[in-house]
Amino acid sequence: MREELIVSGRMNPHIDPQLHIWEWQIPAYLFLGGLAAGILFFAGYYFIKGKSEEYPTAVKLAPIFVPVFLALGLFFLFLDLKHKLYFWRLYTAIKLESPMSWGAWTLMIITPLSMVWAALHIKSLFPKWDWKFDFVKDIIKWLEDYKTPVAWAMMILAVILGIYTGILLSAFNARPLWNTSILGPLFLVSGLSTGAAAIIIMSKSSAERHMFAKIDLVLIAVELFLIIHMFMGFRASTQVQIDAASMFLGGQFTAPFWVFVVGLGLLVPASLEVMELRNKKIHYMVAPALVLFGGLLFRFIMAYAGQMSRWLY
User: Fold this and answer.
1) Each residue of 126-137: b (16+ CB within 10 Å) or e?
2) What residue segments make up the domains of the chain, in order of their start?
3) Does residue 298 carry a pLDDT above 70?
């Protein structure tokens, strides 16, 4: 997604059919941002609840990968910029009415917070780990006294980050498919679901996996509700939004969305998680892997389909 096209609202897939092939950075960034938000939310929540030892993967292990996810996502975002040398201008002002400003500052704060959280728990996961410099040890020891405020800040910012990944698209009024208030909550719930799925894959505890399978089932149900509500809203709206919804209701995105995102990405893993909770012999990695696949494909489809939806002139 080239910045000069998406910002100006001039993108037209009929001009160059090959244009979409290279537009992977923004959907990948949205996926990694949602995944990081989901993991950090659960890490902060269960630490505050005093369940660090009961759910060690959620609180300690999974968050170690979050700085990598965020760094990679920011790198993809940087690749998408047309004027790369001027990215720093986002940090010269705070505009409360601008989703880009919210996102830039949220990422600026939550990225170092995720590094701090990972540093605080790396010793407990890897007992032989030793920080080489004494001043680093002193900082880590000092931060130990502030883990609860860090957890609260991390959890709140994770919610903002998860919603922002959807609002980033919904703020573009020129694209009817994106211009819906449902997109922010939908991307947040999807991010929480992918975060829960990642924790299930990493966890070695059956009790922890079962707990997050239950959480994921609830999140999948909410996600399905929001998807249905989104299309109901489109169908009851203006003609351009009816046309946008038609791409998913008989149009070119019908099969990819309903078969792969809703079917394989939501309904199938939900069924597998129910079977696993009933002690059926299902490999525990299959369902969360499908959730991650569905979450990634969902963002690609929404990004591409949104560019194809446009107002009639």
Assistant:
1) eeeeeeeeeeee
2) 3-308
3) yes
Other CB atoms closer than 10 Å to residue 91's CB: what's the count?
Answer: 11
Please state the rounded mean pLDDT for residues 41-45.
97
Superfamily the domain 3-308 falls into? Formate dehydrogenase/DMSO reductase domain (1.20.1630.10)
Count of Cβ atoms closer than 10 Å to residue 89 Cβ: 10
In order, the DSSP letters of 229-269 are HHHHHHHTS-HHHHHHHHTTTTSTTHHIIIIIIIIIIIIHH
Token pair for 163: 């919603």
Q: Read off φ and ψ for residue 247, nearest 5 degrees.
A: -65, -25
Question: Which residue has 């929404």 as its token pair?
Answer: 302
User: What is the band of 68 on the pLDDT scale with cuts at 50, 70, 90?
Assistant: very high
Residues 6+ apart with CB under 8 A from 299: 27, 28, 30, 31, 34, 187
CA-CA distances (angstroms) from residue 116 to 34, 44, 54, 102?
A: 19, 13, 21, 21
Rounded to an integer, what distance in angstroms lies between the CA atom of residue 106 and that of residue 37? 11
Percent composition of the chain: helix, strand, coil (DSSP 3-state, to 5): 75, 0, 25
> Is the CB of residue 188 less than 8 Å from the CB of residue 158?
no
Closest CA to 191 of 53, 14, 313, 29: 29
Tokens of 145: 């006294």
Block residue for tokens 């997050």: 212
Distance CA 11, CA 14 (A): 9
Q: How far apart are CA 82 and CA 115, in angstroms?
A: 29
Of the chain, the percentage scoring pLDDT greater than 90 comes to: 54
Backbone phi and psi for residue 129, each to the nearest 5 degrees, phi listed first? -65, 135
